[in-house]
Amino acid sequence: MKLYEKLAKDIEEQIHSGVLRTGERIPSVRQTGRHHRLSITTVIRAYLLLESKGVIESRPQSGYFVRSDASGTHRGAALELNASTPLAVSARVDVSRLVLSTLRSIGADDAIPLGSPYPDPSLFPFHKINRYAYAIARRQTQWGVKSELPPGDPELIRQIARRYLENGASIDPNEIVVTVGATEAINLCLQAVGKPGETVAVESPTFYAMLHAIERMGMRAIEVATDPRTGIDVGALARIMEKQRIAACMVMPNFQNPLGFQMPDEKKRELVELMTRHGVPIIENDVYHELYFGDAHPGALKAYDTKGLVLHCASFSKSLTPAFRIGWALPGRYRQQVEKLKFLNTLTTPSIPQLAIAEYLENDGYEHHLRRVRKVFTQQANLMRAVVNRFFPEGTRTSHPAGGYVLWVELPPQIDSMRLYQLALENGITIGPGYMFSTSNSYSNFIRLNYSYAWSPQIEGAVVKLGKLAAACMREAA
Q1: Phi, psi of 81, deg, nearest 5
Q2: What is the largest CA-CA distance in the chain?
Q3: pLDDT tens-digit readout, 296-349
Q4: Residue 293's closest CA among 431, 162, 72, 451?
């Protein structure tokens, strides 16, 4: 029996024996850790286990208490948005400077990377893939551009198609265009369907890479109210489309960055049917699709596409290796345009990374690797939420990710995320300020945290410190 399981069992026995009664406060995390000589992480895991069983509950700024009934709520409740949230007007996009500044700060002076958009590289089999790349380079004495030209290496394309088949989706391998990461796929797809000055509908909040693509094209973004559990409000999008022309819709239906939701299948179908009726293309960013927390692989919007209007984009950067920057697009009826634009924009995708990943997929147990990563991310998501809910100021709320590796945190309205970002940097901690995820100031009191890095006293201490800095921001604003 693991330490946290033993501790949970001991506490539960004390409750059943009457030592701890209904409604009574149980010893704090720190008290329990000192008494049992256990780390805060171990104690939190024990308390999370008891909380999930309905034995105890967390109360804001008060600690943990023995529950009186199974219907009680606790502070870790997911964010809820008002469905009547006003829609943003179409706006020009200029978030690249802030994002670039934030990304540069991540590696500065070994800062703790809670603001990183990238997964912990130590989780991925880079050395194995690198060995394949080295062997390929040694056995190939001459290289031409033929195998690098669009649509990409045939063996990699076959492996990508086979992976979809293994996950229950049958796709036409002839539709696949290999790209330099999902970012290039998104940019190519947007370039294929839109023109400068046109308007693109996006989720609110949305991943800043989507905003970058819109900014690069000289287009305008209109933000659509998005539920933190079910995704973009299809009804709100329909009302927008009644009033103005939309060139495209860009969404992340699975484990959206930063909210982390998985859009229900019925809503995916509803969204595709709406856009199909209007003849408007959807650019689907499905880069996190392999990083689910449940038992079943999520479906894609592409599965409901009957007219070739869904341009599906994905990559191996978040699930296998970010070093080789290999992505792909399934552009539907826009395939020829995307392939042509790929040739005009970057000409080729390097062969060795394509071949190395193809050989890894063929020989090295990709699914086994993914199961391990999913387990780590699931555990660390729970830990991050628990520590944030315990140590951040009262009024803080968190998302409840269904996959991926980022947590969206709503701070009390007095706290400005840029001020917190600055204080955190001064203390060697990076965060993602909410300003990066919108064309407006709608998320000025929100931050995004990365929980992919191995949980350690340093990570835990940084989150606790961040909570104290948030409290300091509140005092400053008072």
Answers
A1: -105, 145
A2: 77
A3: 999 999 999 999 999 999 999 999 998 899 999 999 999 999 999 999 988 889
A4: 451
Using alpha carbons, select from 86, 26, 34 the residue that is nearest to residue 51.
26
Q: Which residues of 128-152 are buried (b: 16+ CB within 10 A; e: fewer)?
A: bbeebbeebeeeeeeeeeebbbbbb
Q: Which CATH class is domain 93-121+368-477?
A: alpha beta
Which residue matches tokens 């199974």?
A: 70
pLDDT digits (tens, 9 = 90+) for 111-170: 899 999 999 999 999 999 999 999 998 887 655 545 678 999 999 999 999 999 999 998
Q: Tell me the two tokens of residue 370.
A: 């993914």
DSSP letter for each residue of 413-465: TT--HHHHHHHHHHTTB--EEGGGG-SSSTTTTEEEEE--SPP-HHHHHHHHH
Give residues with Cβ within 8 angstroms of 369, minimum separation 6. Answer: 124, 125, 320
pLDDT tens digits, 83-126: 334 444 565 556 666 677 666 666 555 789 999 999 999 999 99
The fold for domain 3-66 equals: Arc Repressor Mutant, subunit A (1.10.10)
Per-residue tokens: 191: 């370039």
Q: Kindly list the distances between the CA atom of residue 235 and the CA atoms of 82, 109, 226, in Å, as whole numbers in the listed order.
A: 14, 46, 11
Q: For domain 126-365, which architecture applies?
A: 3-Layer(aba) Sandwich (3.40)
- Residue 218 carries which DSSP code? T
Which burial class, exposed, middle or buried, applies to 414 when counting CB atoms under 10 A from its CB (0-12, 13-18, 19+)? middle
